[in-house]
Amino acid sequence: MASWAFLLAPQAFAQSTGQGRAVVTVLGKHSEVAPTIVQQDVTAKVNGKDVTVTGWAPFKAPNDGLELVVLIDSGARNMGRQFEEIGHFVESLGPNTKVAIGYMQNGYVAMAAPLTADHKQAVSELHLPAGPSTNPYFCLSSLAQKWPSQDHTVRHEVLMFSDGVDPENRRFDPDDPYVQSAIRDSARAGMVVYTIYWRSSPAGDSSALTQDGGQSLMNELSDATGGYNYWTGSGNPVSFQPYFDDLLRRFDNQYALDFTARLDRKPAVESVKIKVEGIGLQVTAPQQVYVHPAGPE
User: Fold this and answer.
1) Do 31 and 287 meet the contact criterion of CB atoms below 8 Å apart?
2) What is the Cα–Cα distance from 136 to 71, expressed in whole angstroms?
3) Taking a C-beta distance cutoff of 8 angstroms, is the pair 137, 179 a contact?
C-alpha cells in the first residue's frame, strides 16, 4: 500500500504545480529614480500562500516589447480637442511599442487598424467616435478574449477613456458582474488596464452619484489589473498631458515577475499579493493573476 502511494506521488505533484506572470511597476518616491530591484527583494502570495519567485526582470531595451491599445468610448464625441495630446503621446512611445486605436461599440471593440510600430500611422486612425455609450467592461472583456496579436512575449496594456458607467447598473456596485468578468478576463490575458475618466455625451441618468459610481468601478478595475486610474473629480480633465507623462514613466519602470505555485484545480484566476522591499518605493501590482499548469499551455 505504501509502495503504491509512493509511485503516485510524483505524478500528483506534477499535476499540482502551476505558474504565473505579473507585470509590476516600481517607481521612486515623487520623481526620483527608483533603485535597482533584485529578485531577492520580491515576495508574493497567491490565495494567501507563499509562492516561489522564479524570475524578476526589468522591461528594458531590447527586451522592452509593449503592445498598447488606446480604447475610446463610442459616446465620447466631445473629445476632439484632446486628440492632439493623444497624438503626441502615441508618437512619443518607445520604438519597441506597437499601438492600435480601438473604439468601444455595442459591447465589442472595433479596431481602427492592426497593432503597428508606425506611431504616426496609428495616430492617423484617430477620429471622433459615433454612437451611444456602451458597457465599457463588456468591451474590455471582448478585447481580452480577442487580443489583436499572438505575441505572448511582450506586455499587453490598455489605456481606456470612459466614464466607467455600467448602463445596466448605474450605481456603484463593487460586485458588478460585468466589472468582475472584465477583471478576470484581463488577468487571464495578462492585460494591465489604465483608465482616464472622460464623461461622455449625456445619456440617461447623469447624476453625481452615477459619475462617482463609474469612477469607483474604473478604480476597482485598474487596481485589480495593476494599472492606474486617472481622474480629478466629476469634470473632464483640462489636459491629459500630466497623465501621459506619468504613464510613460510607468512603462519605463516595469518588471516581469514569474512564479510557481500549487495548482489545486484547473487553470484559474487567483488573488495575489506582491511585496517589493525598499525605502520610498511606489509599487503597483495586480491583485489578481492567472495561474496555469507549469510548462507551455
Assistant:
1) no
2) 9
3) yes
Global pTM reads: 0.90
43 near 275, Cβ under 8 Å?
yes
Instruction: Give the Cβ contact number of residue 162 at 10 Å.
Output: 29
Distance separating alpha carbons of residues 260 and 271, to the nearest angstrom? 14
CATH at residue 202 = 3.40.50.410
**Residue % of the chain over a pLDDT of 70:** 88
Residue at 265 is within a domain: no
The C-alpha cell at 194 is 489604465
Per-residue confidence (pLDDT) for residue 11, from 0 to 100? 44
- Measured in whole angstroms, the distance separating CA 203 from the mean position of its chain's CA atoms is 27
Quote the radius of gyration of the chain (alpha carbons, Å): 20
Return the half-sphere exposure (C-beta side, CA atoms, 13 A cut-off) of residue 273: 5
Separation of alpha carbons 67 and 94, rounded Å: 11
3-state SS of 150-197 is CCCCCEEEEEEEECCCECCECCCCCCCHHHHHHHHHHHHHCEEEEEEE
pLDDT at 2 over 50: no
Residue 223 lies in a domain: yes
Overall number of domains in the chain: 1
Does 57 reside within a domain? no
Q: Stretch 271-277: mean pLDDT, rounded?
A: 96
